Amino acid sequence: MKILITGAAGQISYSLVPFLCERGIFASKEKLDLSLVEIPPAMKKLDGFVKELEDSAYSSVNSINTYDNINDAVLDADWCLLVGSIPRGVVLNGKEIKERADLLQINGGIFTEQGKAIGSKAKNNCKVLVVGNPANTNALIGYKNAKNPNQLWMAMTMLDALRAKAQVAKKLGCHVDDIYRLAIFGNHSPTMFPDLENSNVNGKNTYEQIGDHEWVENNFLPKIQQRGAEIIDARGASSASSAARAACDTVKNVEHKTRSGDVFNAAVLSDGSYDVAEGIFSGFPLISDGEGNIKIVRDFNLSEFAQSKIRKTSNELLEERELVKDLL
Q: In DSSP terms, which residues pair with 204 in a beta bridge?
């Protein structure tokens, strides 16, 4: 299997690539051909990382190749993990990138070219996970420019789901593996909505077990929505290891059949489910058949509270789409 990873010398990839090389992540038993992509100034750093990967002697890895452009790297790729993106706060041409609109336009140009390359050169059944923020709209831009409906494009919301499970486990004194059907709706941003009302812990409704709506609305939701900022404030850098773990878990959940009675989380192109506008990449509860096919789970009952939160995050995604309409 050929696995392409952009931003391969960055902090997220430093954890992600070793995670992916562990046995059992991919359903196929084929060995991995790693295709690692970076911008030219980061190639020396990437070479150092490759030396570490070689020294790890993974039994799952067949080859490791590095590239400074995606066009050469992506030929016949089975999976593309698009980790690299320009973060807020970077100074380009003497100007600090602060506004979301600027961030969308700058990254939009990157994902326009990546989408074209993936659509024309990767395998027709290639699966694409966008990790680089703003992930949902980056995925929309890439998908639209790929022009290959046979490929599966997703944006990562698994990190939000893992954060939500961790907080529920702390609140209820349970293990994260006991939590089922916890879904993330909407954008990977402070507007996203983690739904507890359709989740269960050991067969009992999660929301009812908590029994405290004020905690859910005023403690739990802000905690999950602002967790990224909390981590930046604490460590002086964005989430890296946890983001890598979430990306790896997304791949594993697509590759393997979803456990009975559960869902997994990613943002996919909306078909209008749960009244989310069509034509945007939104987080939904998903299941996989283990053959590379995923679908939206449609049996969640949403309260007025949940619907209002989903409308808010959906509207933000529509606003983002409008900001990049010239790239679609």
A: 201
Name 217's Cβ contacts closer than 8 Å, sequence gap at least 6. Answer: 305
How far is the C-alpha of 151 from the C-alpha of 130, rounded, in Å? 13
Q: Beta partners for 285?
A: 265
Is 119 within 8 Å of 166 (Cβ atoms)?
A: no
Query: What phi-psi label fits residue 257: left (phi over 0), alpha (psi between -120 and 50 degrees) or beta?
Result: beta
Q: What is the 3-state secondary structure (H, E, C) of 58-97?
A: CCCEEEEEEECCHHHHCCCCCEEEECCCCCCCCEECCEEC
DSSP character at residue 276: P
Distances (CA, A) of 221 to 9, 162, 215, 238, 282: 33, 13, 8, 20, 18
Alpha helical stretches, state H, 122-256: 135-146, 158-172, 206-210, 213-215, 221-225, 227-235, 241-255
Task: Look at residue 184 and give its three-state secondary structure.
Answer: strand
CB 43 within 8 A of CB 13: no
pTM of the model: 0.96
Q: 275-293: per-residue pLDDT in tens?
A: 999 999 999 999 999 998 9
pLDDT of residue 77: 98
Spans of the chain, pLDDT less than 50: none
* Span 207-241, pLDDT tens digits: 999 999 999 999 999 999 999 889 988 988 888 99
Active site residue 256: no
Catalytic residue among 175, 188, 213, 256: 188
Q: Do 131 and 12 form a contact (C-beta atoms < 8 A)?
A: yes
Distance between CA atoms of residues 245 and 171, nearest Å: 22
Q: Name the one residue in this structure whose structure tokens are 């490759």.
A: 50
